[in-house]
Amino acid sequence: QMFVDLACLTPVGADQYETLAADHRARAAELLDRAFAASGADVLVSITMAHSPLYASAGYPAVTVPVGPDP
Predict the structure, then answer these.
(1) Contact, 57 vs 21, CB < 8 A?
(2) Is pTM, for the whole model, over 0.85?
(3) CA dihedral sign, ordered 63, 46, 2, 59
(4) Largest CA distance in the chain
């Protein structure tokens, strides 16, 4: 909720929003590309949704695999 409240206090027009969104996507993709290149990794694996803001922002696909039964 805090982020929604803060966003409401920051006036951003449609053009500025599109520019900021494109910049955010490009930066997220660049960060992941560099991490993959440096580590030789092909995928990002997480047992939580901790990385979802990064790969989703970059436009990278994600697969969720259940680890076990949900109590």
Answers:
(1) no
(2) no
(3) negative
(4) 46
